[in-house]
Design a protein that fits this description.
The chain is of the alpha+beta class and about 160 residues long. It has 4 helices and 6 strands; from the N terminus they run H-H-E-E-E-E-E-H-H-E. Helix 3 packs antiparallel against helix 4. The longest helix is centred in the first third of the chain and has 22 residues.
């Protein structure tokens, strides 16, 4: 019994140690930036504090080309050298929560109004349609509110 406990505890320690080793990836590796697909939404912060939001176009061993948006000039392609970049983050899409809110809102709106909708009237399903539209609008607004916080993942930090 004692040896079984020792064996199980060693297996547990090895499993925990191996998952933490595999989970940690080097953020100072420039190949993380090079491996991003063109068109990926990124946020780049330079060492002098400027932040550029845009899409990756191309990257070489020492340069990142991205299409950034500027208030006056609009969108244009800029190049940033590896030496002037402090960190690169990928920007995740946030369309999931509004769609989920829309679907839930439509379902809840139809379910609530179905209880009050009378089949013997001139328009027997009008209440369900209106409830679905109203519930969908409320759900869409709630999902949009949840997804307002920008979601980013850090992929490169200058050493």
């Amino acid at each position: 019994m004692q040896s079984l406990k020792k064996l199980l505890s060693m297996v547990l320690v090895l499993l925990v140690a191996s998952t933490t080793l595999f989970a940690q990836q080097s953020l100072s590796n420039w190949s993380n930036v090079e491996n991003l697909k063109p068109g990926t939404k990124i946020v780049v912060r330079t060492k002098n504090g400027r932040e550029y939001v845009g899409t990756k176009r191309q990257s070489t061993d020492d340069t990142l080309f991205m299409e950034a948006k500027f208030p006056v000039q609009g969108a244009r392609t800029i190049s940033l050298s590896k030496d002037e970049i402090q960190e690169v983050r990928t920007k995740k899409s946030t369309f999931f929560y509004p769609l989920l809110g829309l679907a839930i809102g439509i379902g809840v709106g139809v379910a609530i109004v179905a209880r009050a909708d009378h089949p013997g009237t001139d328009d027997p399903n009008l209440g369900k349609i209106l409830g679905g539209v109203l519930g969908g609008g409320i759900g869409l607004a709630a999902g949009e509110g949840i997804s307002r916080k920008p979601k980013t993942k850090q992929i490169y930090v200058a050493p």
